[in-house]
Amino acid sequence: MKSSMVLLLAAGMLLPVLLSAQAVKGCSQQGVITPTFDAKNFPGPTTINNRYFPLIPGTTLVYESTQGKQERVEVVVTHDTRKILKVDCVIVRDTVSVAGEVVEDTLDYFAQDKDGNVWYLGEDSKEIEGGVVVGTAGSWLAGVDGATPGFIMKAQPLVGDAYRQENAPGTAEDTARVVSLTGSVSVPYGSWQGNVVVTNECTPLEPKVTEEKDYALDVGLVRTLKVKGGSGESVLVAITQ
Fold this sequence. Notes:
Layout: E1 60-65, E2 71-84, E3 87-98, E4 101-112, E5 118-129, E6 132-135, E7 140-141, E8 148-153, E9 162-164, E10 166-167, E11 175-187, E12 190-202, E13 210-216, E14 220-228, E15 233-240
Antiparallel strand pairs: 1-2, 1-15, 2-3, 3-4, 4-5, 5-6, 5-7, 5-8, 8-10, 9-11, 11-12, 12-13, 13-14, 14-15
């Protein structure tokens, strides 16, 4: 399961949040669809303005853990692009640090289709120890070794929607299920009431683990909470442009 966008920590007190609908504490593969990709549906793929997953080049989002290790994630929407399956993708760099030391450095590739769906086309992930790359687990690229793109956020999510985010068999198989469109959440960066998209996300590669993710209007991901297979939370603390 992708770790660079989220921080999953040991048990402890969680930052108070309000949810108008309880997330389902589980993640079944039943009904999960594999999105059909067609490069012809991407006339302007690097303009990513989906209101629940906007990616504006030059933006930096900062997430921090609420307990345990001093973990911090900086998500930078770069001005760089990469062509994958004949589609130009925005490159987003995620850097995970623990107590000020970088432990993971990842490049993610996203594109938006003509309908407003945001697609995930791969990631180049590096695990780092003492400044040295020690692993690349979870790295994948659409079009390589049978991997295909998936949705990271639909244009018009509906409760019950279930879809693949990553589809690289044996390497990256994350899926998401929409459980609410009317969630409410408070994090250090801000509060949103009644309009938060809540998903449960999991992977068959780690079947005992499920994460809840909260997406705020015109911001994107603001909170991640492990709801099965342990406990842990990360929250949005700052955005700069």
